[in-house]
Fold each of these.
Amino acid sequence: MSALSVASRQRQSAPNVSFEFFPPKSDKMEAKLWESVARLTPMAPNFVSVTYGAGGSTRDRTQATVAKIAQDTPLSAAAHLTCVSATKEEVLQVATEFWNAGVRHLVALRGDPPAGMGEKFEQHPGGFRDSVDLVQGIRDYDIAPGARFEISVSCYPEKHPDSRGWDQDIAFLKAKQDAGADRAITQFFFEPDVYLSFLERARSGGVTMPIVPGIMLQPNFKGLCRMAKVVEASIPGWLHELYDGTEDDPETRDLITANVAVELCHKLADQGVEDFHFYTLNKAGLALSTCRMLGLKPKAQVA
Ligand code: FAD
């Protein structure tokens, strides 16, 4: 990219960003998470979210992490919540605990079956049937006087493995919106057209809520390929080429990862996309450099 095009990029308004973290499993990971949160805070994200382990396995850690973000930082904290392995009452109790801890935003998901993706999802006896039922359940539940969670949901521009076809997927996403979802966040993807075609389908199907692209910042290419296989997201041939031979070179992989993310965001921004959700994997450096290259400045530096 020439100096001229860098300058013209910088004249475009900087995007809105959000960051996704996972709850740490060890003291070392915990220290890294809080260092990442501190380094990313000046980017003034719309919100930061914390994932909920499969089957609610990280319930306590998710809760402790989002509560600390809500209470000890200026950030807006969002807690992921799933329907798996819990009754409706248990799920709503967790939502209430999030609310009481100062969390005002949920990412409401069906979740994967306890045996893992690929297995058939079975509704827990007494549990929510699916993500639409969960969103409706949260909206119908009287958590506290005047309480209203902001609710984000997922969507899948390359289809989820459980997809019953595009028409049903879009109708299902519309049902999440009708049940009270405020925003959808996409599964990761690498080609802008994947997102743009999905957006067109969703808009034609009556989905009017924001659909925020989820941008993956995974520099471990082998790990990315494993993840993509499970969730049936495609990894383009050119990405294989870029990482080829970098197996023992994490520094180069980081640079590739940030550049790929920036280029994808720029292409989407050229089509009018203004919000990006970054899957940070709890690493600040990649998210920070990506944001800087998209024109975001630390808040203190914004005059
Ligand atoms: P849904 O979107 O509810 O459904 C999955 C697919 O099945 C869709 O294609 C949908 O159209 C179809 N489908 C389901 N029910 C119906 C129906 N009744 N009629 C027609 N079609 C139907 N997992 C975690 O365990 N913890 C997390 O914190 C977490 N965070 C995530 C965040 C994001 C942004 C994304 C994209 C995914 C996340 N996941 C998380 C993964 C997610 O839990 C899995 O992909 C899970 O298999 C599906 O849950 P969902 O709410 O995304 O599914």
Note: The pocket of flavin-adenine dinucleotide is lined by residues 51-52, 54, 80, 82, 107, 109-112, 117, 130-131, 154, 156, 160, 162-164, 168-169, 172, 185, 187, 214 (CB under 6 Å).
Amino acid sequence: MADRPQSHAVTTLPAWQALRQHREQMNDFNMREAFADDSQRFDRYSLSSCGLLLDYSKNLIGDKTLELLVQLAEQAGLPASIEALFNGEKVNGSEGRAALHTALRSPIGRRLELDGVDLIPQVHQVLHQMTELVSRIHSGLWRGYSEKPITEVVNIGIGGSFLGPQLVSEALRPFTQRGVRCHYLANIDGSEFRDLTARLNPETTLFIVSSKSFGTLETLKNALAARDWYLAMGGPEAQLHKHFIAVTSNEKAAVEFGIKAENIFPMWDWVGGRYSLWSAIGLPIALAIGISNFKELLAGAYAMDQHFTQAPLAQNMPVLMALLGIWYGNFWEAKSQAILPYDHYLRNFTKHLQQLDMESNGKSVRQDGSPVDFSTGPVIWGGVGCNGQHAYHQLLHQGTQLIPADFIVPVNSFSPLADHHQWLFANCLSQSQALMHGKTRAEAEAELRAKGLDEAEVQRLAPHKVIPGNRPSNILVLTRVAPYNLGALVALYEHKVFVQSAIWGTNAFDQWGVELGKELGLGVYQRLTGETDEPASDASTQGLIQHFRERHRG
Ligand code: F6P
């Protein structure tokens, strides 16, 4: 990539070294004191863009920290990497591919050439194809074999062909167009298939086989099972095309599966699976919320792209969030990152980010194949608040690990219920406040004495009541979870992940690590089913195969 100091390990950059020293100086940094000393801390360390407010004031940072982190980004060649990403350079080095998910939300009229071909007309051609399908289904023009309109859409896909569409269609449930319900079938587990199909009528169901490769085991098995189910339920074979469409970059395999060429929506190898919800992989989203809302989603993501490419690094939301992640992961030994949406409709956000972040940044070598000597992507975990407060927040507050948290919360709820939303918002803020503030030994003792406990009891209980505080969190506030804001939010995290990989010098767009398990799966399957008697290469696998064969009744 142009102007990237690839030959330099990031750890040798002067800013990295300076950050190491600065980290030592920050040992005694106390956020509570920093807030007490600086009434402007929120104003200085918060930022609004694309309908999102990012409050990053509750972090273990001062001006010096930010200055050094921005220097790190500059010295690592981040501006050139961003340019390379958007210009279609082969940023996915190991697969020799560009990663142009940003082209999918680019307005018509712009030009973006890849290998001499302008991609934008192709993107808009597919968007047009999607618009037609959505309109035919919503208007009832597309009918099933018995002439009934389609009311159920089942997306058969896994990973990026599932998590992004599921997140968005569920997050935007208040925008659902009447008449079409979307369902997701991802896992190969027969229980998932049975539970779903028990609720479906083949006459009114459309299956979207969604697979960039059209070679993913789980998806192909489920697609075959769906076809068998359709036929077994009385669906005529000659009318299959009214009930099965596909989204894939492997048209040949989809046609071989039996899907009509005109019912296949294209994907491109320059879009990674986990970045693909903006493409025809987003069909279930468009069917759920309508094409205008889908375009609003794209517009929000495009606005974030504009912000990302144009804002100075120090006022750039994805860059700042990425740098904070690097600060904690590489200088404070944080191993995980909590994602805590305070919104029922955003409950799948953490799952989407798990794939986005962990599949992108779970790497141990740099683009040039040399091993890294620092931590890369953290474990992403979390879930919806307030539920988490009554489960795992204990570890955030008093556990031994430093776990930075991102709180995500809308100002307005789509389901006002008495004062519930005020309480939800209050809980979100107070959790972040508690992480920062903590409770000192003196405060804990005073609290216990105020309750009238004797001194021995005060001393016995006080250590358990101490909350260290000084634990970092960001708060991202949306006015409401609407298509535009959500598009911006998802794109924000996409860019955050990219910035980290660009600084580390790793490849955010391949995922070789997932392949070995798939390769070994066939051998295990053949031994489980008795296709081969050859023992497995290790005693554990062989013992478990034996255990299964002796007990399996199915
Ligand atoms: O196995 C991992 C993976 O390749 C993901 O990267 C991808 O999102 C998912 O499988 C599904 O792939 P496909 O869309 O090709 O079925």
Note: Residues 158-161, 211-213, 216, 219, 273-274, 359, 511, 514 surround 6-O-phosphono-beta-D-fructofuranose (CB under 6 Å).
